[in-house]
Amino acid sequence: MEGIISCIIAIIGAVFLVDFPEKAHRSWRFLSEAECAFVIRRVNKDRGDAVADDFTMGKFLRPALDLKIWGFALIFFCLTTVSYAIAYFLPIILQQGMGFGVGASQCLVAPPYAFAGILMYSTAWVADKYRMRGPILVLNATIAIIGLPIMGFATNNGARYFGVFLVTAGANANIPACMAYQANNIRGQWKRAFCSASLVGFGGIGGIAGSLVFRSQDAPDYHPGIYAAITCNCLIILLVGLLSLHFARSNRKADRGEKIIEGQVGFRYTI
Q1: What whole-number distance in Å separates Cα of residue 127 and Cα of residue 118?
Q2: What values do phi and psi take at 74, rounded to 5?
Q3: Among 73, 38, 63, 54, which Cα is nearest to 263's?
Q4: pLDDT tens digits, 40-84
Q5: Do the beta carbons of residue 203 and residue 107 sit within 8 Å?
Q6: Non-local CB neighbours of 74 within 8 Å, separated by 6+ positions
């Protein structure tokens, strides 16, 4: 039944989906031609790639030589490993690790995700207001790192459940933060296409890894899974730090006229 519903929604979505900005005025009058022109001017002012170049395999695959693309993908892999692991196993952890009943475990899954939504929107507002991405990723990863030992090693179930809130919120709030971090620091339609594919692909691999983090033989404490999740979040902080150093150095060179970033005069990385 779930598959049928998904297929129906996909068909409806294909009919009502709004096109790219240059053609959006033809899509159910979602935007007027003047509004589309405004959007295109803003995109071109920011990165100069509102209209896609002709496709060639070389243009699509050339971004694979850019190491930062794989840095973004690895960050997303670490994020999805933790977020999928929590999503898959949280009811089991609540039941077997913390002693809650089956019904209570299912009900107690929801509140941490509500808190994750609050953190997600709050950090997104701050990130947009102050035009930063990396510090938000580090903040959320740190929140998850704080929550993991509490969830794994506290002796009181209330404290452990509090740790679940921190882990769930930190991991899930970082998903859109990572997507924005990547999107703000690349330009070119086909490079964006390759980067999106690499991000989604590594995210799927993270889902596979997440299914193996909290193993049944590690119950009821699941300490190896806790260590793995902490390692993922530490790796996120390390990667963001390295990328931020590279971005800051490149921006300074561009300010001095020594470098053109991403082939676009005036383009600057978002740190």
Answers
A1: 14
A2: -70, -35
A3: 63
A4: 888 887 777 777 777 778 778 888 999 999 999 999 999 999 999
A5: no
A6: 202, 235, 239
| Cβ atoms within 10 Å, residue 212 | 12
pLDDT band at 117 (very low <50, low <70, confident <90, very high): very high
- The mean of the pLDDT values for the chain is 91
DSSP for the chain reads -HHHHHHHHHHHHHHH----GGGGGGSTTSS-HHHHHHHHHHHHHHTS-SSPPPP-HHHHHGGGG-HHHHHHHHHHHHHHHHHHHHHHHHHHIIIIIT---HHHHHHHTHHHHHHHHHHHHHHHHHHHHHT-SHHHHHHHHHHHHHHHHHHHH-SSHHHHHHHHHHHHHHHHHHHHHHHHHHHHT--SHHHHHHHHHHHHHHHHHHHHHHTTTS-GGGTTT-HHHHHHHHHHHHHHHHHHHHHHHHHHHHHHHHHTTS--GGG-TT-----
CB 184 within 8 A of CB 137: no
CA distances from 154 to 116, 161, 204, 221, 230 (A): 21, 9, 31, 10, 16
Q: Is 263 left (phi over 0), alpha (psi -120 to 50) or beta?
A: left
Whole-number Å distance between alpha carbons of 41 and 36: 9
Confidence at residue 33, expressed as pLDDT on a 0 to 100 scale: 85
Length of the chain: 271
Give ∠ CA 13-21-50 in degrees, rounded to 5. 130
Do 188 and 262 form a contact (C-beta atoms < 8 A)?
Answer: yes
What whole-number distance in Å separates Cα of residue 186 and Cα of residue 249?
Answer: 16
d(CA 104, CA 189): 48
Is the pTM here over 0.70, yes or no?
yes
